[in-house]
Amino acid sequence: MPLRELQYPAEPYSRVNRLRDRGDYTLETIHQIVNSCPMLHVSFQPPNSPFPAVLPMIGQMGSFTRPSADLGDVLDLYLHGYVSSRIMNLTRSPNSQEQEGLPVTVAASHLDGLVLALTPNSHSYNYRSAVLFGHATLVTDTAEKLYAMELITNSVVPNRWSNSRVPPNAAEMQSTSVLKVKINTGSAKIRTGGPHDERGDMEDEGLLDWVWTGVVPVYTVMGEPIAGGYNRVGEVPGYLESWRQEANQGAEEYAKEAVGREVAKKTGE
């Protein structure tokens, strides 16, 4: 753990402008949001296209040179994809290789609750969101590529890498590419708490007696595992079942606790 809480610099393109008290630039907060998000959205600008491209990708933050680094340390983002996908091909282009890499923006978000107020304009979400800005390059070192593949696999289900057939064979290694994103900066934005309404609505006794207000907690639930058609293992492995139960309990607890945790004092999204 770093001696002090590290933060990303608040650049003009990364700074939280609206409801700034919801902004957070600490590495640990941002990395936790990213690493707990099952799907990341990666944006980049393809050449000869008037529109940016956005891809859903699987990724995880870590450090190949310092595997024991925690979420509060400086980390890289590893992204997993098919060898001939557009983003992978762009990182091989001469322009990308001559520069720091392909500029990318990566977004992660969690919905934690539906905040229902007296009026539609005061409705909101409880949420955690993070955005990272950096440059992506292809991982060419075999040891680092295997590190990233294991890191990403275990982010789906902890210990899954060692409980499956590994290492990948030559064909699997050839068909899979891994990007490493060196992070320039990032920011998070978080809302927790209950509904907030305008004073005039709060003073309307008839409205208070008529409209239900509160929060509907939202969280992902991992369902009962269903065996595949050729599965020959009698019981669900302990590492999988214990993780499923812990993940479900943790997600439910966070969503419910977030209702009573006031981070923002202003109204709005």
Automatic annotation (TrEMBL):
Residues 253-269 have a biased composition (Basic and acidic residues). Transmembrane segments: none annotated. It comes from Parathielavia appendiculata. SUPFAM superfamilies: FMN-binding split barrel. Residues 250-269 are annotated as: Disordered. This is Flavin-nucleotide-binding protein. It comes from the Eukaryota.
